[in-house]
Specification:
By secondary structure, this protein is mainly alpha-helical. The chain is built from three helices and four strands, in the order αββαββα. Helix content is 42%, strand content 6%.
Length: 130
Amino acid sequence: MHKPEKKRSLGLNAVDDFTKVLARMDIFGAPLPTFNLAGQTIISTATGGIMSFFVFIVFFIYGTLKLTHLIDKYNPSISEIKETNFYDMYTRLDLTEINFNVAFAVEGYIDGQLKNDHRYVKYMTRILTK
């Protein structure tokens, strides 16, 4: 004989459907490393769906607040510092007092090899120090 299937009440169907919706929203689902379960490679739960929903709500509220602050220009932080004539053209800066050392390397544009041509380096130094 054929046994009649039990029909669930409307309340249980709604709870079950809501649980499935929450499980689909789960962004914290754990992947199964070597196999799948009923064709799924990630296990999602209703608890993960609830937490995901709260994360979405927090991000939405934060983004909305930041957007309204941006549009309303709320609490702008504008800093401006202007120093004019800090050094005049006759001020001489002595870098030996602070033990300042400089080193340069010249490389070819096409081949990328370091150039060790003492004449070129001396020539560039004379141009820049005049």
